[in-house]
Amino acid sequence: MNDLPWPLKALVLTVFVVLYYKYAKSALFALCRRAAHLLPFGRRWDASERGSVLELAAAGASHVLVVAVLVLVTGIDLTRFAAGFDRPGLIALGAAIGVGEVALGSLLCRVLIEGVQAAGRRRAGSVAGGVRNGVRRGARGEVRGARTAPATAGGAVDGAVESGERMRQWLGLSRGGWIRHHLKTMEVVSLPLALALTATQVGSEEVVFRGLVLSWLREAGPVLAIGISCLLFTVMQVFLMSSWRAAMFPVVGAIVMGVTHSVLFWHYPVLIPLVVAHVTFFLFAVA
C-alpha cells in the first residue's frame, strides 16, 4: 500500500484508528469485565479491580498487535527508529520532556476550567443581579438596602466554595473512562508490573502515531503529516470517555504531547526518548 497517494493513506489510518480505538477496544474491555467474574483471582481483589487489571493487560497486548498490523500495512522498518537504548542522555531528556509536558498540560487544563467556571459565574451573576435589582426597586427604606449587603458577602463565600467543589468534580471526572484501569491497576499490583503494563500501552501509541503514522505520511509534508498525526492521536483520547469534561484532560495532554513529539520526531526520528516522555507524562498524570 506504499503506492497510495497520501490522502488515501490518511483515510486508511483514520478508519483504522476509529475501528480499533473506538469499537474494538470497547468490545475488548467489555469482554475483560465479564472475564473478571469468571477467572480465578485472589479474593483480595474485587470485580472492579480484576476488570481493570485485565483491561490494561489486554489493551497493551492489543496495542502490540496493532503495531504489527500497521507495520505490515505500511511496510515501515521500525528498527531504524530504535536507537537510544544505550544512551542515558536520551532517556533523561525524554523524562525531562515528559515532566515539562505534564506541567504545561496541567496549566492549560487549569486555565480552561477556570474559564468555564468564570463564564458560569457570570451567567449566574447576571440572573442574581436582575433579582437583586428588582428587590431594591421595591425596597422602601435604607434599612432594607443595608440588610442585603451581608447576603451579597455570603453569596461570594458560597461562590468560592462552589468553585472549589466544581474543581474537585472536574478532577474526579478526569479519572474515569479508560484512565480508570490504569489507576486501579497501580493500586492493586506491584509497581514494576504496573509500570510494565503502562509502558507497553503508551509506548505502543508512540510507535503508532509517531513512528508509523508520521513516517507513512511523510510525503504530505510536515504541516499536514504532523497535523493528521496529532488529530488522530487527540481524537483517540475521546473514545471511551464518559463526557466532554472527563475527556478534557486527556485531550489537552494529547495536544501538548502530540505536537511536541511529532515535531521532535519529524526532525530527529528516534522513538526511545518519546516513549520515555510519554510514560513519564502518564505516571505523573495518574499519580
UniProtKB/TrEMBL annotation:
KW Signal (keyword) present: no
Alphabetized UniProt keyword annotations: Hydrolase, Membrane, Metalloprotease, Protease, Transmembrane, Transmembrane helix
Source domain of life: Bacteria
Calcium as UniProt keyword: no
Coiled-coil parts of chain: none
Pfam family, one: Rce1-like
GO molecular function, one term: endopeptidase activity
Transmembrane feature ranges: 6-24, 53-76, 88-113, 223-240, 270-286
GO BP, sorted A to Z: CAAX-box protein maturation; proteolysis
Protein name: CPBP family intramembrane metalloprotease
Signal peptide location: none
InterPro entries: Rce1/LyrA-like_dom
